[in-house]
Amino acid sequence: MKKLLTIGALLAGVTMAASAYADEIKPAVLYDLGGKFDKSFNEAAYTGAEQFKEDFGIEYRDFELQNDAQREQALRNFARRGMSPIIAIGFSQANALEKVAQEFPDLQFAIVDMVVDLPNVRSIVFKEHEGSYIVGMLAAMASETGTVGFVGGMDIPLIRKFACGYKQGALAANENVEVFQNMTGTTGAAWNDPVKGGELAKSQFDRGADVVYHAAGATGIGVLQAAADAGKLGIGVDSNQNALHPGSVLTSMLKRVDIAVYRTFEDAKDGLFEPGFEVLGLAEGGVDWALDENNAELISDEMKATVEQVTNQIVSGEIVVHDYMADQTCPF
Amino acid sequence: MNAGQLPRWVDFGLIPLLNLTAAFLVSGLVVLIIGENPIEVVQVLLWGALGFGEGVGFTLFYATNFIFTGLAVAVAFHAGLFNIGGEGQAYIGGLGVAFACLALDQVVPWWVTMPFAIVGAALAGAAWAFIPAWLQATRGSHIVITTIMFNFIAASLMVYLLVNVIGEAGSMQPETRTFEDGGRLPFLNDFIPFADFGTAPVNLSLVLGLIACFGVWLLIWRTRLGYEIRSFGANPTAAVYAGISPVRTIVVTMLISGGLAGMMAMNEIMGSQHRLLIEFVTGYGFVGIAVALMGRAHPIGIVLAAVLFGMLYQGGAELSFEIPTITRDMIVVIQGLVILFAGALEHMFRPALVQFFTMRRLNAAQTG
């Protein structure tokens, strides 16, 4: 028992010693249940935090959750150590963040993919439908069969938002296009089932699709693999996945969680942290499509010119991409 | 290896202790391999689980979940049934709790809502166990297969309901609205004046769990139904010969088992989260199997095993927080080793111990 007390005292000592550096920020990241290395959403946050560490030499702390009860606990653990800003990744963190942010009004918090309306919280959301619209157009233009596919992860409104934007984009490029949609599952396991992802992609190829877009986390690795094996095209999501199968990944819909994390840390460092909304769409560079040496040959000049024009039109508001989550329906 | 070959304190004390020690030794090796100090790791783990009020609170909170799911598995064990569906039954149990809370929370205080929530949880969990039980009893469809499949059906059903029917409109998160005070169980902090569990969500469900333990003990060892359950589990053929209806026994046992699993939702939904959310069971149902195995399907053993797993969960969380190189996957490895040694390799040390104690008894007899 005495030893335990000693550890407790030691830990307390460490924390106090750390808080002596008052002007240096102590950022923290709380990943969602998917885990730090999911090759997609959470990993993008990790990339952003690592980049920040590399650029400014400021250490950060992070934590991977095991269950829902740990959300509040982990946030409080960060907050008690005076870590700030604390970024919670994923919409599921909203309730926990709301509580803890109220308990620690002097600390700065941020949440990705959800809105928490408090004076010390920055809410960062993305217009995934806009990015999906662009890759939908690319898919329809690249397709020779006039049939494209979509494989989602878990069947939730957020993923339907990806699907709806994608379909709208595909139809804009080719009004006769047929779009197949499959969701991998209804549980969290659907984010991490590459075998089933591959099977769904294969079934779409068998029905005539030749470009398949995934929004399925680690399940999508199987989708892209199946596309490469079948000599068809896949489209990556969240992170740039073009390099996974060079020549077989048409493009990737980038959701720049890394930029969101990096900017939040940087703003806090410079004393520019501001609470409130931050909506990152095409205009803000929050969503984008990936063009690099791995897919340069797949994107013709005409395709490139078209989507660049459309990007401008979306930015200027000339084209409005329907947001599934605004009314929970997809009119296409 | 019959019972009675070993003194009781060896059977129920020494062997579990040896198994645990072996599990921790192997875990220590793993920790060494990744370059951390095992002693320090154990200290942080114990400190995280028991070293301060909030840690104890979280340990007890997790233990409450494991008590319910462990009891559920244990009751079925006694009838020779292997109920792997605790996960799904608890998940659907959440539906029963949520319906009671959503209907009543704005109208009446929590102590009026509570009995309805308990009945709702138990009924929903039991209902989810009923079809596998009935199929097993009348059609011989193996309960292991059907209960596992029902876990998936439960997950799909809950997603459907939370996304399309009872979920809060316009919310990205598939979950119901947050319950008002009338739908919240009091935290232990609130009604035990000297308790200091910090912000840990340990709540009245713990008391409920202990009452359930006593109830299960009464049921299994002190009632006619319990006798039938145990007889059927020991030898179904003989039980039928003795006039015990197999269909009735299987169905009733599974209903009780499912009901207990469903009541786990009291702790998570009404006690802690105060809303019905997706995937709230996160494996507690499966860990219940290990808890029941370790606790020898006896309520007292289950409470002890549940507290142990509660410590592993809470201590593990603190551990991966304090020592970032110990990732959450490492915690799962340590938990897995405990399950492996305490459950699967339970007989590893037994033959040697039996030999040792038999020798000693013989020696004692000779000299005496």
UniProtKB/TrEMBL annotation, chain A:
Organism this protein belongs to: Roseibium hamelinense
Subcellular location: Cell membrane
One matching Pfam family: Bmp
Sequence ranges assigned to domain ABC transporter substrate-binding protein PnrA-like in this UniProt record: 30-322
Family note: Belongs to the BMP lipoprotein family.
Stretch forming the signal peptide: 1-22
Membrane-topology descriptor: Lipid-anchor
Protein name: Nucleoside-binding protein
Keywords: Cell membrane, Lipoprotein, Membrane, Signal
A single Gene Ontology CC term: plasma membrane
TrEMBL record, chain B:
Keyword tags: Cell membrane, Membrane, Transmembrane, Transmembrane helix
GO MF annotations in UniProt: transmembrane transporter activity
Membrane-topology annotation of the record: Multi-pass membrane protein
Compartments where located: Cell membrane
Transmembrane segments: 12-35, 55-78, 90-108, 114-135, 142-163, 202-221, 276-294, 300-319, 331-349
GO annotations of cellular component type: plasma membrane
Transmembrane recorded as keyword: yes
UniProt cross-references to InterPro entries, sorted A to Z: ABC_transp_permease (IPR001851)
Record's protein name: Nucleoside ABC transporter membrane protein
